[in-house]
């Protein structure tokens, strides 16, 4: 698949740190409960670390207790592309940025308490958070307890 934003491998290496490069360009996964955005609760938007496209709104973020930032819906229908992932001996659905093809994480349909039933389980290192001006509190869905 061809994406609107293209960069050479050297450009990706120059722009991303080692972990970001491994995750975004080679579908690695950051360790659970280590990402900087896991506990982020302010209102705002989450952008692709590779190309700055808007991917998720903070209003769709929830605590899934899985160790990675989770969202119940992308910012819009064209923000991400879903791909079959047959690695690790299982079938999963990979989520990639529709603009640059960077690996973001996976989506699972195991969150029935959210409006969509979906859990977009994203790597913190694949995202950049931009708070709304004056943002102080979270307006996203509460996780089930």
TrEMBL record:
Its EC number is 1.8.4.12. Its cofactor is Zn(2+). Residues 9-132 form the MsrB domain. GO terms for molecular function: metal ion binding; peptide-methionine (R)-S-oxide reductase activity. GO terms for cellular component: cytoplasm. Keywords: Metal-binding, Oxidoreductase, Zinc. It catalyses: L-methionyl-[protein] + [thioredoxin]-disulfide + H2O = L-methionyl-(R)-S-oxide-[protein] + [thioredoxin]-dithiol. The keyword Zinc applies. InterPro entries: Met_Sox_Rdtase_MsrB (IPR028427), Met_Sox_Rdtase_MsrB_dom (IPR002579), Mss4-like_sf (IPR011057). GO terms for biological process: protein repair; response to oxidative stress. Pfam families: SelR. It is an enzyme of class 1 (oxidoreductase). Gene3D superfamilies: Peptide methionine sulfoxide reductase (2.170.150.20). The keyword Signal does not apply. Belongs to the MsrB Met sulfoxide reductase family. This is peptide-methionine (R)-S-oxide reductase.
């Amino acid at each position: 698949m061809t994406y609107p934003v293209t960069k050479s491998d050297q450009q990706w290496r120059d722009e991303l740190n080692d972990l970001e490069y491994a995750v975004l360009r080679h579908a690695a996964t950051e360790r659970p409960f280590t990402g900087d955005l896991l506990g982020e609760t302010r209102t705002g938007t989450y952008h692709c670390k590779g190309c700055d496209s808007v991917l998720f709104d903070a209003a769709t973020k929830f605590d899934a207790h899985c160790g990675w930032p989770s969202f119940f819906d992308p910012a819009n229908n064209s923000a991400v592309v879903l791909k079959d992932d047959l690695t690790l001996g299982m079938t999963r659905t990979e989520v990639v940025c529709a603009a640059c093809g960077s690996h973001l994480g996976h989506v699972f349909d195991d969150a029935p308490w959210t409006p969509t039933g979906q859990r977009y389980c994203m790597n913190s290192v694949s995202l950049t958070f931009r708070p709304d001006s004056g943002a102080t509190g979270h307006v996203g869905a509460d996780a089930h307890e």
